Structure formats: C-alpha cells, structure tokens
Amino acid sequence: MDAKTANIVDDLRGLGDIHVDELTRAVYATDASLLQVTPLAVVAPKSIESLAAIVRYAADQGLTVHPRGAGTGLAGESLGQGLVVDVSRYLTRILEIGEQSVRVEPGARYAHVQTELAKVGRMLAVDPISGDRCTLGGMLATNAAGPHALRYGTTRDYVLDIKGVLADGSFADLSV
Hints:
By secondary structure, this protein is α/β, with parallel strands linked by helices. It has helices at 3-12, 22-27, 48-61, 110-118, 136-142, 149-152, and strands at residues 16-19, 41-45, 65-68, 83-86, 94-97, 102-104, 161-165, 171-175.
C-alpha cells in the first residue's frame, strides 16, 4: 500500500468499511456497462453522517467521489478513479412508509421497497429492468424509468424531497 492509500485508510477509519486492496478495487472497477475504471479506494459509509464526512474529506483532498448503489447502470456512472462510495452495504433502510410516500436511504433496494409497500397495498409505479437488484439512490441518480415509462413516468416524477450531500460534504434539503 502506498502512502496516499495508507493516509486514506487512516483518515477515514471509523466512518465505514475502507478497501484499498487490489481485488476489491478490481471488483468495483466495473459495473453493468462495458467500461472499466479502477478506483483509488472503495468506502462503504455506515451512516448518512459518515457519508457526508467522506465527501467532505474527498473535497479537502481533491479526490473525486463516485456514489454507487448496485452498479446496474449501463453508462459507467458509478465508476471513477477517486473514491467509490458504496451506499448499498449499510445505507439500505426504509425509514418511513407514509400515507402517500416512502422515505428511504440511498442504498435501499427497489425490490425490497416494493415488497414492503405491497404489504400495505401500495407500489412504486416506476419499474426499471434491473428492479430485482437496483437501489433507489441509483434510480434517482439516473432517473430510471423502465418499459412502462410512457404510462407511469420516470423516477423524478415520484420524488417529493431529497436530503442530499453536496460536493463539499454539507447537507441540502431539496423539495419540489
């Protein structure tokens, strides 16, 4: 391990799982696209606050951040040479099912959300092809649609608000 990756491991310790080994980096160098880009490190934050701290650290160090859910995108959108931040390991909870809404963490799997909504007679209308494995954060990032988009619309049509982490690590509450 070189000095740069050793510093990353030391600096991010306690914020989540940090991987700089060759095998993990090779796994995260690919997604469902034909592209291959090896990251400097892979980090799986254990909380939204840890995610913000990781993004803040990357901004301070001049590192790029590449959020990743299930890696089902077809355009290489979860690949990059900086820090790949895997939200699908720990940030997977359904936080609330309301009367007309559902609030989730970015790594929540679409199929799991659909299963839980079905228990109360509801569903998400968007139906991406990769629905058995994709995450809601990835769906939002790519505005996922699916084969019934002409009838039901795309992910953005069903978003009421987002608590997001900006490039400097600060939080932003966005609503439509």
